[in-house]
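Side project, low priority. Logging it here so it doesn't get lost.
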Amino acid sequence: MKLRSHWEENRQNYDAVFFDIDGTLMANGAALPGAVALLDMLRAEGFPFLLVTNDANHSVQEKAEIARRGGLPVSPEEIVSSGDALRELVAANGWEGKRFFRLGLLGRPCHAEAAGLEVTGDRHCLRECFGVLGGEEYFDWYKDLHAAMNFLREHPDAPYVVPNPDSYWPGANGTVGIGAGGQARFICGLLGEMGVPHEPIYLGKPHAAIFTAAIRHLQRGFPAFSGPDRKRLLMVGDYLPSDIYGGNRNGLTTALVLTGNSRLAAVEQAPPEYRPDLILEGL
């Protein structure tokens, strides 16, 4: 069954829909079949939906532009990223104005600055920093990872915030890149071997912060959405460890589309908490 068919028969069971982007609505930089029509239908009905992504090294403005270039017209207001969840973490802990050392890119505009932090990529300023913030892509791994690890070794109570917990991301021609989550677990694994245990603060799927941020974003954008009975929120994604496990552990109804990372064989072998409520062949 396709998602569109399920939706036409069961829309009364849902108050809102969250979509993963990469592998769910888009693949290889292009909109997947049915994606544009599905979002247009939801907009025409005034039905609440959001695109929820772990990609925090692009701002929602940049992510919307990437989607538009790939044939999926969306607005920045229809996207929530793991970087957006940083705002509430900063406010809850009174970190406004604190300086963080960033590892990699944080998007333009920068989600960390939007959340009230000061950020620097200059490792020579690390001693003046309050914590470390994990980004992705282009930076001097050898020097910066060493610098961050030694900073956290010397300051074991300093926060290491990682918006995107993904271990890797798909690259060109079947390759993969090491993600911010993979970098964080590498650094913290080494710290643990040194007797300095450190646990990163993850914000993206499957963790709670991004779902809380998405729900609050819906409440601001759709005043009629009082929500949430979380079982009436449908999380649609292609990846068991983030989209499906994240939706399950946060109380949402989950639907796996077999268009991206996870295949039917993976579902059959997965533990119960990783199994979706629905399995759909596409949109």
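Brief comment: The chain has a mean pLDDT of 93.
Revisit when time allows.
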